[in-house]
Every structure is written in structure tokens, then in C-alpha cells.
Fold each of these.
Amino acid sequence: MASAPRSDIHRLTVPPEARGERLDRFLAGRDLPVSRSRLQALMAEGRVRVDGRVPKPSRKLRGGEVVEVEIPPPERWDVEPEELPIQVIHEDPWLAVVAKPRGMVVHPAPGHRGGTLVNALLHRLRDLSGVGGVLRPGIVHRLDRDTTGLIVVAKDDETHRMLQNRFRARSVEKVYLAVVIGRMRGEGVIDRPIGRHPANRKKMAVDAPRSRPAVTRWRVLSELRGATLLEVRIETGRTHQIRVHLASVGHPVAGDPVYGGAARARGVGDPVARRLLLAAPAQALHAWKLGFEHPRTGEYVRFTAPVPEDLAALIRGLGGEVPKGKERNLGEEARPVGRSAADGS
């Protein structure tokens, strides 16, 4: 009979230069195989010890202590296929492009074992790559839970790796639609590094400690009542990048509860616009177009996700027209010209 898997114990000796640092911040800066949120849970469960005793996360270190972090074996999950509302924009023998609805998490995680895009993909598609493991089959990139729009999914391992390389090389064209609070004009570039917010670990911030470069290009599609409809392209793919960058210039995405969309909407002078913006879908951000060189055929392909009805209703209610685009465009018009047109994630 096979023995049960054991916990991993990671032992760290606190160096002299960490004297006076909080335990939780010290551990957050170490190379441990867990996320910060998981680390906080381990401390709450008493799985972190300093010199053999369970401390508070706020304990100040002196230097020289031995910190033990017990990481239990992962719980075995069986991810089940589920019939969920996703739209398959394109499917071929190697990949699929799907439109994710608002409110759907991309892959299972603690607190979201079902109802995810992965559950839906297992129901809709026959094959998915195994590169992402049991919990992330086929998943090459992600969108935030409340961001709608396009995701490309790999159906075999080689295609998965080839797509990953295109994302790393920033040769994937990713175009978003965003309704932002306030009036913006023309076009512009936001070039500010993004990192974890120093006081709120669930948020990101510009110019934060350990920030990474981030570049967002935007242009106005139409001026709305109390708001602006933007086309946004990202050259990098940082967490919450579009939301953080637009909020940093004073124009948060409408409906964004984390980066000030709701708070800023309360100050809109037009009462009709204010009411609509306060009722906006949790964040008015849509992954609209996706373009890349097909890893198997070598052809440049571009796909467009229809604008979801809640976002379309917001745009119309604010006096704008809903942008339209071809669902699929293969050929001369689809291929980007120059670096700026090929800006990816």
C-alpha cells in the first residue's frame, strides 16, 4: 500500500541584514514555491515556525533565527467537464479561440473549483494540451475574472509551447475596448512599471517596489457622456495592467471596484451618465481582438470577440456607437505592419 504524500519542510536562516524585518515580509521576499496568499494561509494554520514556535506574522526578526515553513502536499482535484456559456470563435486541429464571459475564472483554484473556463473547455473541446497540468489544460494566457473576451487555447503540447513563445516574444497582437471615466482626447502611451501594491497585496500599483516594465498604448474611439471609449493595446502583460495604468492617469475603467471606477463615477456631473456609470458591469473592459502567426500554418490570423451586451448597452446609453469588427480575418489586412501594430501582451 502506497504511503500518503508528506509535507515539504523549507528551512531558512534569517540573515543579519533582515534584522527588524517583519516575518511575513521576510518570507514574501524568499524563493518559496507558494503564492503570497497561500503563505498567509500557512501562517494562519500554524505551519510556519520560528525556532520551533508558532509566531505572529508581524513578529520582528533579530537575525540568526531558523524559520521552518511546512508546505502540505497539494490536494488531489478532479476537474470535471461542465456545460457553461462560452463562445467558440474558431477551432482547428491545433488550437481554439474562445470568448470568455464576465464573472468566469479561467482555471480552478482554491475557492473556485468549478464554473471555470477550464471546466467549460473540457466539455466543449475534445483535446487540450497537458502543459499546464491538471488544473490548467490548454491555458496559454489569462484574463481577469470580470474581463470579457478572447483567449487562445492549445489542443496539443507542441502548439502550446509555440504559442507561449509568441507571447514571450511580444509578437501577439492584443486589442481591448475600455470605457473609462472622464474625458480623454487623441491617443497616448503610458510607460510606467507595475508591481505589487506595498500596502494591499491584492492590488497592483505603478512605480511600486520590484516593479516590472509595462507599456500601454491607447487611442480614443469616441467621446461619451461623462466617459470615453478607448481602444487599448498592451506591449507587456502585467497583472491588471490596463486597469492600473488608466487609473494612474486619472481615468479608471468604469465599474472597476478595485482601482477607483465606482468612486470616480460618483463625481460625474451629468446625472444620467452618473447613474449608468455607477451601474456599469464590473469593469467595462473587453479583450476585443487577438492576432498572431498561426504556429502550425504560418499564416497570420486575427479574431474578434463580439462586444458583450452589458458593455454594449453601457456604450449606447452614454451616447456612443458599439464598435464592430470581423470575427475572423485571414490575409493581407490581418497582418500587422511594423512593430507598433504587432504590440502584444
Amino acid sequence: MKIPAPSVGIGILNWNGKKFLETLLPQLSSLTYSHYNIYIIDNTSSDGSISYAVQ
């Protein structure tokens, strides 16, 4: 019997960290593991972080 891969949640706390998201998010999207969700928790950033993250 094959056991399915577990789902993983990745939480990112952010406040004006667009420059870090620009590095981190492309790396996460290139993972070979496909059973994950990314949760970005933002504290009212004013640097365009959320606009960047949703595109």
C-alpha cells in the first residue's frame, strides 16, 4: 500500500519585505514537492509586497 505524501503548510510573516519575497517565492515555486500551500501573513505593508505576491 502506497502512503500519500503529506501536505505541508508554509507560513511567511511579512512587513515591507517585498525584496525578500522576490527571492523566496520563485524558489518555493520551483520545489519538486507539490503538496504544499503558502500562507503569507502581512502586517499592512506599504512596499507593494502583497501586490507582488498575488501576481
Amino acid sequence: MWPACSNSPNTLLQRLRLSGEIPASRIQGFTLIELMFVVVIVGILMAVALPSYQKYIAKSRRSDAISALSAIAQAQERMRSNRSSYLSVLDDLKLGLNNSLSPGGHYTLSLSGVGDPPSYNFGYIATAQASSGSPQAKDSDCAQMSIEMSGGNLKYKAQDSAGNDSKSKCWPS
């Protein structure tokens, strides 16, 4: 043990160096250059990884639209079994949607009729549009997802932010 005196070494490193177990030439730290290299490497990794992570998160949020549109389709079929036409108002489906928002709040939902003029007798179109206040609004690949029931056939549709067809990117196959 080291004697307790005012000039005794107070750190383990100082004690080892004074005892000769670690030569003074081996005691080193990181230089500023080495530290800057680490900062640059971490910055490059973040620049590469962050966009991929954001795309992954946007893709996972699409399940919010898919589940909401599936719930609308199921409710419409339940209601259609007792009526001669599909319902035209989301609230009438009794899905508990808050202001026509999807359960996660990432999409605004709407209903419209099919045909010209639009009618709910033979089908409907349920649309999920990425909400402007949601982080999902930055998902340019799937800005709008929809299902169209027409004549007993269900079609899946999607558009990117430019209005191009993006069904293969948005709906699982």
C-alpha cells in the first residue's frame, strides 16, 4: 500500500508509472487528428444509414393505411349484406375513426362511389392519403393508397407523389 502523504500519487496510472510497471513512453491518449477521423467516419456512416432507416420507417407506416383500408372493406361488405348499396359516409361504418384519420393518424381516409356518375350501388373507392401533418407525408413512393370495389372485384391501387402508379411498391404481393 502507498503511504498516505500529501505528495503521494493519486491515480492508478501515476502509481504504475512511478513504480516502473508502465514506462512513461507507453502512456498516451488520443490525438486531435485521431478523434477527428472518428468523427468523420461516424458522420459518413450516419449519412448513409439515416436515409435507409427513414425509408424503412415510412414503409412500416404503410401498414397503417393497409389495415384501415382493410377495415373499411370488411365493414362495407357487412353493411352491403343488409342493404342494396354500399355506404357513402365513413362514420356510418362505425369504425371509430377520429376525423377520418387512420388508426395511427398517418393517413386521411375518404370514400367515393364508382362509375360515371359516381354511385355506391355497385361499388366504392376507399382512399388513404398521407396526412400533411404526419411524417408519412414525406413518403414519396406511396402518397396515396386505395382499394376499389367494383362489380364484386376488389382492386388495389397506389400512387406516388407525382401521380404515377406505384402499386407494386405499396401493396404486399
Amino acid sequence: MCELSEGIEHGRLTSRTKCVVPLRHEANFAHAFKCYAGSRMNPEQKCSVW
């Protein structure tokens, strides 16, 4: 689960991308799934999604 593909099909975001991108910016997600700091699913610079 800790990876992200390009995520665009026919000019639109895929359902997977719509789900994964917000999760990668949630500290609770990274902690729960033990994603390493700086990894694709736990970037050092996070955006506030909500």
C-alpha cells in the first residue's frame, strides 16, 4: 500500500489516486502503517488536505 503510481487515466485522477494522495499526507496513516519518514507514503513536506 505504500506506493503511488502516476494515477491519471484519460485525463482524470484514478480512484486509487484520490484515495492514496490524501492518505500520504496524514501523520496518523504513516504511524499506523509504519511508513518511513521521507518515503513516498510519508513525505517530509506534507500538505494539509482537510
